[in-house]
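During the practical work, I selected for study one protein's amino acid sequence and its backbone structure tokens, as given directly below:
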Amino acid sequence: MKKLFLIGLLTLTVACQPAESTPAPESTPTTAPPPTLTSVPATQTLIPTPIFSPTPPPPYFIESFDTFAPYWKTITINGQATSSQFQSQNGNLVINPLTSNTWVYALYDLYVYQNSKIDVLFQINDGAPYMIGVVCMYDESAGWFEYDISSDGTYSVLYGQWLADGIAQFTPLAYDSSEYIKPDQSQYELGFECKDNFLSLSINGKLFRRIDVSSYELTEGKTGITVSSFEDPNITISVDSLEITEP
């Protein structure tokens, strides 16, 4: 079951006004009707951030994940936060939500970006179903944009917003299937460019959609990654590489 369909008590408000979408030259995707969103009141727990080193890295860089510190902030929704959810192993970041129907975020906490592009190489090591994604323009008060793909062959673009402490609302901006998402595929490179009120989506280097998000008035924020478990708490996904660049 997708993150969007978690059983629960809170029915989230769906913004039915569709975002203007300008397809990339390679293809003209069709947009399925947005799903009905349900969720549980989620608990947000932050793992304390270690003390920063004296010399911070530049804003645009390639993350090697030799260690998972000290510039990343983690958030766990609908599950118990623990340091074992994120572990640095052999130059990769290994992520395991540990409990069912849980999603976890790792946000690069050092810089706020007006325009950014994040490219992440995910490796699915074990478990299904799952959802993996990337985040931009994250602001705790104003909200964030999130681009996810799921093991069922679909992708979604969401506007996330905290309604109250630990309670999040997700408004769908796009939802569709994609020929680039295959049930048996174990590796994906997701690209998410957030520039001048447009979101550009790519999978494995193929740009396939642009979305106008000017009506949401998010002008700057942090960037990061997200992983969701559904019924299976034993999924393990690693981030083999991550690059943040200026678009």
